[in-house]
Amino acid sequence: MADKETPAAEAVEQKLVDEVVERLMDRADASGAALLGEGGLLTEVTRAVLERALEAEMTEHLGYEKHDPAGRGSGNSRNGTSPKTVLTDAGAVTVAVPRDREGSFEPQLVPKHARRLAGFNERILSLYARGMSVRDIRSHLAGIYGVEVSPDLISKVTDAVADELATWQNRPLDAVWPIIYIDALWIKIRSGSVVSRPVYLAVGVDMDGRKDVLGLWVGDGGEGATTWMTVLTELRNRGVEDVCIVACDGLKGLPEAVTATWPRATVQTCVIHLIRASLRLTSSRDHPKLVPALKAIYASPTEQAAEQALEEFSASELGQRYPAVVRTWQAAWSEFTPYLAFPPEIRKVVYSTNLIESINARLRKTTRNRGHFPSEQAALKVLYLAVRELITPKASDVNHVAAHWKKALNQFSLFFEDRLNTR
After folding, report:
1. Are 47 and 93 spatial neighbours (Cβ–Cβ below 8 Å)?
2. I need a labelling partner for 39 at 20 to 30 A (CA). Which of 57, 89, 224, 367 fits?
């Protein structure tokens, strides 16, 4: 019976909340009060809520309500309040923190010596994750909340992420992954002079079809088997024992490193990457003819049919005009052809690295806003915070299940000889 009454109770509660909000807005309109800042509507509501919660904490601490006769002779009692200004999501708010005569009250909501609530720290981190500089964050907080925040405070808040980043970067991983996408993006880091350095990104699709950013690594500027062995060995040391498919964009030295790390893994070049590379090498007026010609290659039912389609394209007028396109496909052929042996369900999943590219697009936007970073650690901090925002439950880039995953998983299990435990 209680379950049936719950929706009605929730509706009544929501109506009461709406009425309270409406009255507050009417009062603000009538008085001309602002939403934020000293005397602002949200500031006053925040103060009232905090003080009500602090009083409830004091009641819990003492064991009796304010003015309750039961407190007489209890050995401890209320002893007035002390004003304290804290930074909140609504800006700076001055609250009256209750005291007790013994001085044993330790408020949890507004801890002693704390000058900002956790939500305010998260606001700073969110702005930092979007690539805003310390100067930009200070200007934003001053303009929106009327709060002057020192550069040292912002640095302390963001530096506190270092331990969280280290824990995330070293967390254990599942033993078997159907597919891992690997890509690299380039950022500028000051090391004496400002230089461009690669950041390697690995995204796995787990047995449930959910995406997980496995790690971020800043390279020294060169790509090769040695560099990739460092990245892949770390993944193996964190628990990754086997990967069915490693999808990438033809990164130099990666296939050899994958084979050395996971001998049974299949290295697959992103088909979309090959198509885009071909389009960059050709005039846009020829794209309407080029796209169907390339589709005849990658949509072929067998490797033999794909070879024939490539030969026909090479001999065509379009192929003669753009021999660089032919060479692009020929150079990537050994990493492209595994795709042709996959059933349609698996082809849909590995067709491209669009999944990881959507994440890279967000990371590139973040780094582009900053221009360059003063250190490798500063770059990783910003990139990690951007990733953290992407993997929240409301984020659509990472947290959702891949389309048609169950069908693909069944085919993975069959095609890769039951290397996946689907029970």
Report:
1. yes
2. 57
Q: Which letter, b or e, does each residue of 306-340 get, where b requires 16 or more Cβ atoms within 10 Å of its Cβ?
A: beebbeebbeeebbeebeebbebbeebeebbeebb
Question: Of 88, 142, 91, whose CA–CA distance to 119 is shortest?
Answer: 88
**158 with 152: CB under 8 angstroms?**
no
Residues 182 and 293 in one domain: yes
pTM: 0.68
Interatomic CA distance for residues 291 and 270, integer angstroms: 16
- Do 185 and 153 lie in a common domain? no
Alpha-carbon distance of 295 to 75, in angstroms, equals 84
**Domain match, 266 and 293 both:** yes
Task: Kindly give the parts of the chain with pLDDT less than 70.
Answer: 1-43, 45-46, 49, 88-91, 116-121, 131, 143-147, 221-225, 352-355, 391-404, 421-423
- The residue whose two tokens read 């796209």 is 291
Range of the domain at 172: 168-415
How many Å from the N-terminal Cα to the C-terminal Cα in the chain?
38
Tell me which DSSP letter residue 65 carries. -
Residues 6+ apart with CB under 8 A from 203: 180, 181, 182, 211, 212, 213, 214, 355, 356, 359, 398
For residues 259 and 319, state if they share a domain: yes
- Number of folded domains that form the chain: 2
Q: Of 380, 376, 348, whose CA–CA distance to 363 is shortest?
A: 380
C-alpha 155/C-alpha 238 separation (Å) is 30
Distance, CA of 288 to CA of 293 (rounded, Å): 9
**Rounded to 5 degrees, what angle do the CA atoms 217, 151, 138 make?**
95
Distance CA 399, CA 147 (A): 34
Same domain for 275 and 246, yes or no, is yes
